[in-house]
Amino acid sequence: MAWIGKSVVRSEDQRFLTGAGRFVEDIDLPGQAWAQVVRSPHAHATIVRIDTAAALAVPGVLAVYTYDDIAELGAMGCSTQVVSLEPMKIPPRPALANGRVRHVGDPVAFVVAGSRMAARDGAEAVTVSYDPLPCTIDGVAAMVPAAPLVWDRIPNNISYRFQKGNSAAVQAACATAAHVVELTLINNRLVIAPTETRAGIGRYGDAGYELLLTAAGVHAIRDMLAEVFSVGNDRMRVVAPDVGGGFGIKNALYPEWILLLFAARKLGRPVKWVGDRAEDFNGTAQGRDNVTTARLALDAAGRFLALDVQTVANLGAYMSSGGPGSSTNAPANAMGSGYVIPAIFMDVHGVFTNTLPIEAYRGAGKPEVNYTIERLVDLAARRLDMDPVAIRRLNAVAEFPYRKALGTVIDCGRFADNIDDAVLRAHRAGFAERRAISEAQGFKRGFGISCFLETARGAPNEGAELRFDADGKIAILVGTQSNGMGHETAYPQIAADLFGLPIDTFRYVQADTFLVRSGNGHGGARSMHMGGAALVKTIDAVLQKARPIAARLLQAESVTFSEGRFTVPGAASRGIGLLDVAAAVRDTGESLDTYVWNLLDVITFPNGCHIAEVEVDPETGAVRIEHYTAVDDFGTTINPMLTLGQIHGGVAQGIGQALLEHTVYDPESGQLLSGSFMDYAIPRADDLPDFDIVLTGVPTNANPLGVKGAGQAGAIAAPQAVVLAVIDAIGTNEIDMPLTPERVWRALQAGKNS
């Protein structure tokens, strides 16, 4: 039976839907203690004194740790280094603040008690005296010479200045172009808010450290923790059970992971911490947050000549594990999207502020650059009086391979066809009539078309192992990691298809550094591209190993393999199943167990065209999405139903950024004003339309499956589709995300008065 390309219901859904999932909150270990973090209420302040006496007197409190207790530990590092005009500045980040706090929520003390409530009571009893300092929360303002310094030895709060491309060629093209359009755009900071908040359990024993946690890349976190504790990787085990969403932020190293292990070692018992939603708002990394000024040069016919992009990326107070990549290397690969642009230059300042650190979030830089180019293209169409569909078709990459101006090579795609198909499905021909009906009812209607290009790979290289267990099952151990994407179903589909065995033959194992040899985890829509390719290579290696064994068992010179069996050519009745071969050699010292570390650093290019149609109430500024259409090219799709689910979720997050979500800090105090769901809006069911999504596919040669990746696409494509539809409805380009009713209403009023 062919399993690849089949919409199989997720095998893991049974336990999730019946409450049998195993998340960190569900797990309690014998003798376990509980921890609570004492966090700074100030965005920037000197710690004058920490008084722990009252906390230690609380019944049940076992210990209260401050920086002096953990000073022996190494600082938290940054695993993402970028090329900078001057050496990149990465300040030391201890797990507990050392004399100074730098954002609201900065950990100051760690209280451990025998129960959850005692830990909370103890944390409330810790008294911290602060001397507040001036703060800065805006990346652009932080670079001004008079701005408060987040770190005393980092002038102008600048960590790095990243440049890529040919500045001279871009400047020359802009100087002689028939048209140049320019925009300054804010890509709003987002609270990620996965369903499951961060949580962990640390323990220490003769074998070393063990951390059970909500994470999406256990091997990388293990490596960073081993460095902090100055131990070998073999003394650091990191395990993730079921994880309720990650979107990039759960790939990072956090102070709590260090503190749990430290406390477990000190106390000789397991220590558990579960962050509440308020802690997730002020203690977990956030996403996006940059300001970009960009120019697009065009010739008289509307062909793109050059793109110039200047960005200030707000990094927050500390450098998160993967934060710098979101504004540098990751967006560089996608800069200019799927358009022919001969010259491109980007210039990025990474800036520290007194806010939570920024981490890679779904798309990690690709949503930002796709939003930028699509806003510019739409403005160019208006300035040149061109059809927004025609200008995109005119400039879409049509010949492959195509080397982009910043070096990446797009191997295949159907960019113009995506546009044509999406326009047809969105019934653009009838839009004028629909707009007239809306206007007759007192509403404004808009049509927004946008294209997107994703660069999928994440970390290069990946490992996969197949283990033939005594119970007749084949364990699939892959170094990628699912936190809701359906890997327990998709990987067995690949193995079942290529082995010709029933899908229930396979069990999926992930996220345990003692069981899975190595891996680069989740991120960058890499799992099927990287992990799937590694699995295919492992399957090939298993069959190569099993073939001579099967021939020997069948007393034949050669055998062929099909549908799970080796048979003798010309004598189909003489055969033996793959599982029988594994069983036959299990006690002989031979084994079919096979591990492959697959070296693969090629990027794939998911792409598509998304169209949003909106209706705006001019009296209130309220926006309602009437229709949403997408035509996406993801190459081969292992499980179309899972793929559609990924697109739905990504589009919902993109709509959230476009219309609702906005992280707001008070500019004077640095307080997080949007610190709960009372003040921070995420999409609800009635904010979303039905989605009309079509999966097309030009298989890539970048991996043996032909897959391109799909996990990030919706979040990359949706913001600009929705924003451009609103701009088309209200007739003004002077607006930034999120397009809240107030902002839309004010833009309409400004348009009336201009």
Summarize the structure.
This protein is α+β, with helices and mostly antiparallel strands. It is 29% helix and 24% strand. The strands form seven sheets. A seven-stranded mixed β-sheet has the order 3-5-1-12-9-10-11, with helices on both faces. Strands 7-15-14-13-8 form a five-stranded mixed β-sheet, with helices on both faces. It has a four-stranded mixed β-sheet with strand order 18-26-27-28, with helices on both faces.
Kindly describe this structure.
The chain has 754 residues and is α+β, with helices and mostly antiparallel strands. The protein has four domains: 15-133 and 192-283, Aldehyde oxidase/xanthine dehydrogenase, a/b hammerhead (Aldehyde Oxidoreductase, domain 3, Alpha-Beta Complex); 134-190 and 286-400, Aldehyde oxidase/xanthine dehydrogenase, molybdopterin binding domain (Aldehyde Oxidoreductase, domain 4, 2-Layer Sandwich), CATH 3.30.365.10; 411-455 and 604-754, Aldehyde Oxidoreductase, domain 4 (2-Layer Sandwich), CATH 3.30.365.10; 458-598, Aldehyde Oxidoreductase, domain 4 (2-Layer Sandwich), CATH 3.30.365.10. The chain has 20 helices and 28 strands. The strands form seven sheets. Strands 3-5-1-12-9-10-11 form a seven-stranded mixed beta sheet, with helices on both faces. Strands 7-15-14-13-8 form a five-stranded mixed beta sheet, with helices on both faces. A hairpin with a 5-residue loop joins β19 (462-468) and β20. α11 (366-383) runs parallel beside α19, α12 (388-395) runs antiparallel to α13 and α18 (640-659) crosses α19 (713-730). The longest helix is centred in the C-terminal third of the chain and has 28 residues, at 527-554. The radius of gyration is 27 Å and the shape is globular. It starts with 12 loop residues before the first helix and ends with a helix. The model has no long low-confidence stretch (mean pLDDT 96).
